[in-house]
């Protein structure tokens, strides 16, 4: 019995060691901040009314009112369309005299994309019901398009926001 007890103690003691069972995990690598390319053909947003930047057909398709609400800021102007009711549908287009993409490029989850030849950032705030594109049109100006729909998933809001961002790019170039 003593022998059995001694063997049991040795087995337990052998399992108790101060040495680690495996090598420690290496620290996580810092995530790289994406970079925005330069604008190949710069276009100023000055003079484009954001309320006139979205086609009426698009607004009707989204079941938004034809007339948006203009808002003025110190560095730009916005237009907001919002649907009454439970859909939570809201579209905001903002023209700014600064680089809106640079504002969001270093935020977690930022994604660099191309919007009709302009570099852009999707995010922040790419959630299940809203999405924002921040588009650089010059080194010191650009626009944002944000769309949200409480009744949809992220693919639809990002698809709508991209479609509107492309429309705004075309209007800027066609002036």
UniProtKB/TrEMBL annotation:
PROSITE patterns in alphabetical order: PROKAR_LIPOPROTEIN
Query: Pfam families annotated for this entry?
Result: DUF3558
Q: Which InterPro entries match?
A: DUF3558
> What domain of life does the native source organism fall in?
Bacteria
Protein known as: DUF3558 family protein
Native species = Actinokineospora guangxiensis
